[in-house]
């Protein structure tokens, strides 16, 4: 799978009020493949909250000096079997599934600390209404690819509701020559009828004049990341990153099927997975 896509102690995020728009896109096509988690996208809009209310101070536990960022996003994930010419997936292959979702995420950079917090609530839909077959067929027709034949066996229709939280620490930072190096660690938890998981991660960033960030935007099952960065520099620099995430999973609707209704073609999801990500922002 290939994709295109924390505040350090005593640093304050820039108070630029204009929104930042983000687009994340993942697709097996970049690897010359088209199976399992075949494609995903997320479109987002993030903006700093200028006037804090009782909601921010009581529920998010934000102080007047903290930076609070609010992000709206929507996206889709598509899953298919490896075999594309059978009406049902073979017993040892991934079920057909699609997940269409929208979420609201708050990020809090807590002034005078080395960590940030995120909380996200997401609503979504699986089944025909998630438009997985339509999107994949349309894309394959455009590029001249074969249509997958197993969509009638996909995971059935179910509204989904998710709550996810993450804390991210800047645990180490050093300047070497004209480059900064920063290590951030994180722990997150997500629960709902689409996904139940806990994760632990670490990300190493390197670049010139590294500025605070909430992490790179990610799609479920990953947690966290906002399409936001500090824009206080006149000529902001990019940075490279490499990260690893270990995740324990109790339930994934696009593999295990729906919780309250029986889907015929499912698999038992792996209880432990590990992701490695490399990129440049």
Description:
- Helix content is 8%, strand content 47%.
- The relative contact order is 0.17.
- Strand 5 and strand 6 form a beta hairpin.
- The chain has an eleven-stranded antiparallel β-sheet.
- The protein has helices spanning 54-59, 132-143, 253-256; strands at residues 2-4, 20-27, 36-48, 67-80, 97-109, 115-126, 158-176, 179-192, 195-207, 239-252, 272-280.
- It is mainly beta and 281 residues long.
- It is built from three helices and eleven strands.
- Residues 1-13 have low confidence and may be disordered.
List its salient traits.
single chain; 281 residues; mainly beta; eleven-stranded antiparallel β-sheet; 3 helices; globular; disordered N terminus
State the gist of this model.
By secondary structure, the chain is mainly beta. It is 8% helix and 47% strand.
